[in-house]
Amino acid sequence: QDRLAEMHNPPKRLVQALQYGRRGEGARSNDGVSPAVGQYPTVLLISGLAARPVVTDMHATCCNTLEKHTNIILQEYLEANEHASWLENNAIQNDDSSSAHWNVLHLFNQGLWNEENAALCPETTRIVKSLDNLIQDCIFGNVFLSVLTPGTSIEPHCGPTNARHRLHLALQIPTTENGNDQPVLTVLNMRMTWKQEQAFVFDDSLTHAVDYPSDGTIFDNKPRVVFIVDLWHPDLTRVERQAIQELYPTI
C-alpha cells in the first residue's frame, strides 16, 4: 500500500486488486474483484483478465521458441543434473511407493537468477532471456526444471496471481505399456497430459493439481521432467506490468 501511494497515477485495477489481499473466499465475493470459479490466487487478483485453464494460444511465439530448442534444454538438464542445486518441494505419496519425490532446479527464482545453476545451463538461460513475455524484476517470475517421480501427487493449489501464466515444456515424459498411468495435470476439471517436446501454457491462478501414479512395473524408475517458465498475462498493459514490478519487487 505504501508503494502504491508513492506511485503517480497508479493503474485503476491495480488499486482495486490490492483490496483483495489474503482474505477468505467469502470475504472476496463482495469486494468488487470477484474471482472466476476455482480462481483463488494467494497474493494478487486483477479484475478483467481473461481466465481459462489452457492459454497456449496466447503465447504461441514463446512456445514455438522453446519447442525449437527442446534438445538443447534437455541436454543441459542431463549435464547439470548431477552438479546443480536441487530443492525438494512439498508433495504427497499417492501409493505405497517409497520413491515419491518432487524436485526442482531453479535457474530463476522469484525474480532472481541463480547464477550457479544458470551457468550450468548457459544456452537454456540465453533462450529464456530472449522471450518477450518473461516475467522479470518481480517475485512472481520463475524459471525451473521440475522432476516428478512415480507415486507422487501435488495437491490442488493456486498460484500467487492471475497476472502470470505458466508454460510447461515436456522434456522427458514416461509412457507405460497400458497408457493408463501417465502423469496428469488437472486444471479445474480439465485433465491434461504432457507430450514429448511440446509446450502448453495454463493459468496457474486456477486450482490445479498433478498426479503421477505408480504402476508397479519397470516404468516406475522413470521421472517426469518438465521445463517451466512464468510469463506475463498478455492482457496486462505495459504500465500495469511496471506497476506490479514496483509493488512486488525481487527480495
Q: How would you characterize this protein structure?
A:
By secondary structure, this protein is of the alpha+beta class. Helix content is 24%, strand content 24%. The protein has 8 helices and 12 strands. It has helices spanning 2-6, 12-17, 25-28, 60-68, 70-80, 115-120, 122-129, 238-247, and strands at 87-88, 92-93, 102-109, 112-113, 143-148, 152-157, 164-172, 184-187, 190-193, 199-202, 208-212, 224-232. The strands form 2 sheets. Strands 1, 3, 4, 5, 7, 10 and 12 form a 7-stranded antiparallel sheet that branches. The longest helix has 11 residues, at 70-80. The chain starts with a helix and ends with a helix.
Fold topology:
Elements: H1 2-6, H2 12-17, H3 25-28, H4 60-68, H5 70-80, E1 87-88, E2 92-93, E3 102-109, E4 112-113, H6 115-120, H7 122-129, E5 143-148, E6 152-157, E7 164-172, E8 184-187, E9 190-193, E10 199-202, E11 208-212, E12 224-232, H8 238-247
Antiparallel strand pairs: 1-3, 2-6, 3-4, 3-5, 5-12, 6-11, 7-10, 7-12, 8-9, 8-11
